[in-house]
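Study both lines:
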Amino acid sequence: MSFNNDNHLYFHELLISSLKAINQSVSITIYPETPQTRIIKYLNEGRISLHWMLQTPTRDARYTPIRVNLTGGLIGTRLLLIPKGKAYIYQNINSLDEFRKLPVVGALGKSWYDAEVWKANALNYIPLEGDWRQVYKPLALGNRGVDYFPRGVNEILNEAAEHPDLMIEPRLALIYHRDFIFYLAKPYISYKDVIEKALKKAERSGLQAKLLNKHWGHTTRTLKLNSRVHLYLETP
């Protein structure tokens, strides 16, 4: 899959470069921008062979998991997209318990793993039905009971730029220990061993780290991840 915000580029290059590094020829057909619900449908039907998703037990059972973490845990870091001028709400928060006591409500896709994490950590949220991209306007207006939208490090800079009524909360990082992995549709299980071998070699050789820095190094530095207050969430 490809996406208009280029979030696919790292995963495509990692897969292609890893396979080439073990002298495995590769030809990839890429679908254009597609809603997440349709991606899942296509994967279920075998219309696409492979996609990257956050690792969960349900997905492990439904598809064929390639058990190599793809982002070094980076994708488990969530920052808050909030209305402009609302950063003061979070300026004195230094622990998860303090965050939990704030009178704020997050917005999360109903079927997202993040929703399970927020529920397990007793954090208030509203489940989003349908197209989650409709959340930005009500979040900016503050009239739908939504105070923040937790987003991945790889997503939030583009989304903040696209929605000037919103801003990135500058202090906090909510972190849980999960990562993206590649999942194969069941008819393509024969690809598992060679892809896993390639990705493990890329991890050992430093190729993965090199590509992470190429695609997201500027992002992590811009967002000042290392100097933020890290709030660690229990992972169900």
Notes: The chain has a mean pLDDT of 91. The chain is about 35% helix and 20% strand. The longest strand covers residues 77-83.
